[in-house]
């Protein structure tokens, strides 16, 4: 599951562009998970600030 | 807002502004929608642009020129510096601008030309009929509205989704995404007439760090690293903080900027039935410099021109709009992107030792005019030990 830390996020859209599923959407200053996320973690890698994390549930 | 326009432009950056202005100037009804409440903010840019490149679009105005630049310096990991004076560096040296004012000015021009403009209005889906784009579903301050158009120009920037919704794959490969962080800093000791580029694995892996002055003691201090190199504990922001702590410990940060720059190849096709894609959304950033303001204005204007031709001819199919795709690809901008992608692919493989060697070999170079091709020839002449790889690079560009 992808978690978004909105206190860290700088709403730049970098993650949106690398998501292979098109699952993220930047609504002005609010990053939102709108589509089906496959938890690949690519967005979390690209983020300049480290606002995203894929949390694997046990 | 009307429910029908000739051209609907999604995105109020430089690409969208030029598309809307060009369409309106050609006598079409045009509408530009921008999801943010204000054009131009937050800024996601280092704001450097060549003077020559601007000329074609807008006359210089002190309201948005923050600094007039005389030279560029490239600093190798060893500290060796390659200095390019204005007469050599041409397009690489110019102005550092104020995008908040500049972007607004561009949108004002579009409005002045007759285009409608709506902010806080987000495109949420294309209207599709028989596989063709016929307009867009918008949320205007939260209110759903359907707007039909003969042509939609997707100028929705790096986070572009519109073309994807219409069926094109616009994903940027992680390694070709520059993950960027920047501080607008004040009270720092800088050369206010020089744009500085720092290279090196420890400074900015597969990228570079920049200091672009915006006044006497003020500058955009930023960094882009490849997404491939970005991970917990070593993200763009961490590299930037380290550089700032070492070089500008007493500086004050008055603006915090983050962003992504796509330094991939452009989209394989930038049109579909009823749809054109321009600017960052088309992935037309220069892969070496990461510069995209000019490319956005250039493709935006061209999209506006071709849209107006196709609308008067009554054919907005992908086949007719394809003229736009072909024209930018064969333009100087298109050729430069193609070449610079290859050059970038080579340069990101260099370790610091090689970067130092190359920089040292160029120490007293005096090129009449800075050109990538001349530079590579000089590097070949001066670095016999790296002859093979440099020649391979040169041949790949031929
Ligand atoms: C850190 C950084 C430094 C840079 N430095 C430079 C530089 O020094 N020089 C240079 O030339 N370039 C630079 N660039 C690149 C430059 O900023 C971009 O290439 C340029 O802004 C592209 O213009 P555009 O119009 O295509 O997109 P943008 O300027 O990104 O505009 C797109 C607009 O579309 C809007 N939008 C998106 N989706 C929707 C939607 N669904 N509905 C409505 N509106 C939408 C967005 O809010 C945005 O305002 C830099 C980029 C970054 C991130
Ligand atoms: S890349 Fe990071 S900072 Fe940028 S919008 Fe995504 S989560 Fe936010
Ligand atoms: S984890 Fe993968 S699929 Fe999920 S939002 Fe991030 S990039 Fe997209």
TrEMBL record, chain A:
Gene3D superfamilies on file: 3.30.70.20
Stored InterPro entries: 4Fe4S_Fe-S-bd (IPR017896), 4Fe4S_Fe_S_CS (IPR017900)
Domain 4Fe-4S ferredoxin-type stretches: 1-29, 34-57
Source taxon at top rank: Archaea
Record protein name field: Ferredoxin
Source organism per UniProt: Methanoculleus frigidifontis
Automatic annotation (TrEMBL), chain B:
Binding-site residues, a 2,3-bis-O-(geranylgeranyl)-sn-glycerol 1-phospholipid: 372
Pathway given in the UniProt record: Membrane lipid metabolism; glycerophospholipid metabolism
Digeranylgeranylglycerophospholipid reductase catalytic domain residues: 176-261
SUPFAM superfamilies xref list: FAD/NAD(P)-binding domain (SSF51905)
EC number: 1.3.7.11
Cofactor list: FAD
Pfam families found in the cross-reference section: FAD_oxidored, GGR_cat
Broad class of enzyme this protein falls into: oxidoreductase
Cofactor binding: number and manner: Binds 1 FAD per subunit.
Record key words, sorted: FAD, Flavoprotein, Lipid biosynthesis, Lipid metabolism, Oxidoreductase, Phospholipid biosynthesis, Phospholipid metabolism
Catalytic activity: 2,3-bis-O-(phytanyl)-sn-glycerol 1-phosphate + 8 oxidized 2[4Fe-4S]-[ferredoxin] = 2,3-bis-O-(geranylgeranyl)-sn-glycerol 1-phosphate + 8 reduced 2[4Fe-4S]-[ferredoxin] + 16 H(+); CDP-2,3-bis-O-(geranylgeranyl)-sn-glycerol + 8 AH2 = CDP-2,3-bis-O-(phytanyl)-sn-glycerol + 8 A; archaetidylserine + 8 AH2 = 2,3-bis-O-phytanyl-sn-glycero-3-phospho-L-serine + 8 A; a 2,3-bis-O-phytanyl-sn-glycerol 1-phospholipid + 8 oxidized 2[4Fe-4S]-[ferredoxin] = a 2,3-bis-O-(geranylgeranyl)-sn-glycerol 1-phospholipid + 8 reduced 2[4Fe-4S]-[ferredoxin] + 16 H(+)
Highest rank taxon of the organism: Archaea
Binding site for FAD: 15, 34, 45-46, 48, 99, 123, 280, 292-293
HAMAP family per record: DGGGPL_reductase
PANTHER family the UniProt entry points to: DIGERANYLGERANYLGLYCEROPHOSPHOLIPID REDUCTASE, GERANYLGERANYL DIPHOSPHATE REDUCTASE
NCBIfam families in alphabetical order: GG-red-SF
Function, as annotated: Is involved in the reduction of 2,3-digeranylgeranylglycerophospholipids (unsaturated archaeols) into 2,3-diphytanylglycerophospholipids (saturated archaeols) in the biosynthesis of archaeal membrane lipids. Catalyzes the formation of archaetidic acid (2,3-di-O-phytanyl-sn-glyceryl phosphate) from 2,3-di-O-geranylgeranylglyceryl phosphate (DGGGP) via the hydrogenation of each double bond of the isoprenoid chains.
Similarity comment text for this entry: Belongs to the geranylgeranyl reductase family. DGGGPL reductase subfamily.
Other remarks in the entry: Reduction reaction proceeds via syn addition of hydrogen for double bonds.
Name of the protein: Digeranylgeranylglycerophospholipid reductase
Source organism: Methanoculleus frigidifontis
């Amino acid at each position: 599951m992808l978690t978004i830390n909105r206190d860290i996020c700088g709403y730049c859209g970098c993650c949106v562009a690398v998501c292979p599923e098109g699952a993220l959407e930047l609504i002005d200053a609010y990053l939102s998970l709108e589509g089906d996320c496959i938890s690949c973690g690519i967005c979390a890698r690209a983020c300049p600030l480290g606002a995203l994390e894929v949390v694997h549930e046990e | 807002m009307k429910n029908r326009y000739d051209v609907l432009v999604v995105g109020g950056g430089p690409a969208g502004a030029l598309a809307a202005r060009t369409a309106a100037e050609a006598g079409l009804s045009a509408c530009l929608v921008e999801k943010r409440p204000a054009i131009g903010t937050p800024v996601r840019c280092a704001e450097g642009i060549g003077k020559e490149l601007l000329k074609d679009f807008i006359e210089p105005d002190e309201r948005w020129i923050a600094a007039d630049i005389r030279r560029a310096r490239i600093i190798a990991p060893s500290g060796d510096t390659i200095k390019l004076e204005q007469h050599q560096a041409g397009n690489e040296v110019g102005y550092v601008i104020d995008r908040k004012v500049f972007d607004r000015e561009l949108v004002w021009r579009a409005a002045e030309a007759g285009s409608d403009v709506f902010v806080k209005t987000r495109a949420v889906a294309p209207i599709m009929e028989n596989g063709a784009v016929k307009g867009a579903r918008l949320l205007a301050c939260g209110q759903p509205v359907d707007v039909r158009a003969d042509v939609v120009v997707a100028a929705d920037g790096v986070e572009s989704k519109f073309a994807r919704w219409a069926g094109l794959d616009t994903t940027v490969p992680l390694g070709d995404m520059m993950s960027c962080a920047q501080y607008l800093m004040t009270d720092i000791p800088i050369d206010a007439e020089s744009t500085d580029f720092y290279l090196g694995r420890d400074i900015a892996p597969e990228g570079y760090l920049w200091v672009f002055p915006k006044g006497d003691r003020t500058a955009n201090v930023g960094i882009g690293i490849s997404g491939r190199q970005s991970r917990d504990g070593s993200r763009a922001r961490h590299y930037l903080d380290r550089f700032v702590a070492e070089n500008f410990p007493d500086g004050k940060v008055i603006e915090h900027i983050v962003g992504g720059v796509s330094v991939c190849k452009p989209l394989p096709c930038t049109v579909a039935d009823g749809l054109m894609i321009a600017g960052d959304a088309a992935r037309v950033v220069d892969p070496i410099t990461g510069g995209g303001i000019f490319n956005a204005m250039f493709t935006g204007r061209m999209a506006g021109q071709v849209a107006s031709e196709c609308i008067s001819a009554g054919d907005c199919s992908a086949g007719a709009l394809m003229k736009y795709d072909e024209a930018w690809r064969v333009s100087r901008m298109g050729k430069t992107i193609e070449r610079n992608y290859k050059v970038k692919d080579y340069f990101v493989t260099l370790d610091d030792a090689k970067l130092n060697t190359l920089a040292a070999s160029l120490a007293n170079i005096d090129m009449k005019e800075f050109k990538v091709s001349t530079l590579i020839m000089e590097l070949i002449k001066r670095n016999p030990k790296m002859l093979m790889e440099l020649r391979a690079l040169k041949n790949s560009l031929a």
